[in-house]
């Protein structure tokens, strides 16, 4: 409890520093909200008593008090509630999900991909989804404060009922007061205890099974991605997905409803029992002549409010505890270190473009894996030359590129740029040296020009130039055309067109190193030939690194590096590698033979 109060005050202080409106909300909101029902019942009772006593002018006066006071209280309460909602939804929740999003964009890629971080992210997302955030802390604090005011006011009322206006002997009044308080506390204790047990169980489902929930969310997201629609239909995956969704959500849903039903049953029963007790005691007081008939509702409301408030406080405290825990989990992810080490050296901006990379005895294992993907790689890359990385699937070509782009750090060895370890450079500046088209490049459901420029600020002339270079100008003449259907009525692209847009994006960036991982795998033979014929002009004096399975597409490269099981096994130009009669020659001849045989078959037919 102490910890709960301490953490809440700490967070509220932090929020107050940025949003001072929290203070008036916390002072006036709970008090006015708690006061409204008592005020209403008090004056309603007074009006009824005045009317029963035949005093119409007094009743009229009380009506004015009722309307006037009620209006003022409700205006203050509403204003506070509105401010609270604006703060919760527009500021606090939004800023936390904003921080979460920024974190996902800024965290080092290798960390982002790790199970530890993904699991922390899933937890944070579930906390967001459940509403366990700053806004919820504020909401629950206001709830507790409102109920504390209610407790205080109703306690005063009970003291007035049993002590101040009582014809009973003092001992009887005290015994009755204690008896009523005891019954009320027992009833609310029972409801709170049950509520806490049920909430604990619900937490178990929500928290302990967060993996299940996030898997369920994954299946829901699948539904929203148009591109999944094809496979889902062709392979009749609908039933599989629906069954999976049921598996993840149904159990929790049913159990949740059962528990909530049980809770409202017990809660409703205890309110009924307390109501009977309250009306019995108050009825006696009316018969004794201690209070007037009109006061019955007023005092009965006092006793019932006391009970409801004590149960609600415990419920709010529980949710406050959950929200604090959720915020702590989310913050621990948001505040975790972005990069293992972050260099600050600026990258030299060279007009002559003279950048030189040197991979020195680089070996690499993916985080959490014991398999060496690259072993003792020594390689020099100089600007202006063209390189090809070739090898069988899984030989480490893409991984080598990822290391070069600092998506991962070498496990052993180092990479130097102009003689300086690349980790010493400022990360963003370093990354600006590369334009990469990964095999699994991503185009977004945004206007075409923004996809290419990766910004809303598009250089129209440069955009047109790169679109012409990849021969897309005619097919996609409207720079603002929306791609895909996720964000509106956009156009779909063929695999080859999408690949050309991705190449255009790489060219638009105009970085000194252009890396193309299987850049023409989706292109038709004519487009592929065009791209390769134009590459020397497209790339100009930049360094180009091609990764390709098609040996014929590497022959124009000045240096070909052959990888096998993470080792560089051969290097040289096309002719020298053919002469070596090693892996490269073998792969080249196998492909050439395949095409020759196919041609022969065609000629026979
Ligand atoms: P290539 O580009 O030559 O086809 P890759 O560099 O993509 O090969 O992959 C080399 C090896 O690294 C493969 O065995 C692959 O399974 C493994 N690998 C690739 N990405 C990851 C990753 N993110 N985590 C663990 N292993 C990976």
UniProtKB/TrEMBL annotation:
The keyword Nucleotide-binding applies. It comes from the Bacteria. InterPro entries: AAA+_ATPase, ABC1_TM_sf, ABC_transporter-like_ATP-bd, ABC_transporter-like_CS, P-loop_NTPase, Type_1_exporter. Signal peptide: none annotated. It is found in: Cell membrane. It comes from Candidatus Fimiplasma intestinipullorum. SMART domains: AAA. This is ABC transporter ATP-binding protein. GO terms for molecular function: ATP binding; ATP hydrolysis activity; ATPase-coupled lipid transmembrane transporter activity. The chain crosses the membrane at residues 21-43, 142-164, 170-196. Residues 357-590 form the ABC transporter domain. Keywords: ATP-binding, Membrane, Nucleotide-binding, Transmembrane, Transmembrane helix. It is a multi-pass membrane protein. The keyword Glycosyltransferase does not apply. One of its GO terms (cellular component) is plasma membrane. It holds the Pfam family ABC_tran.
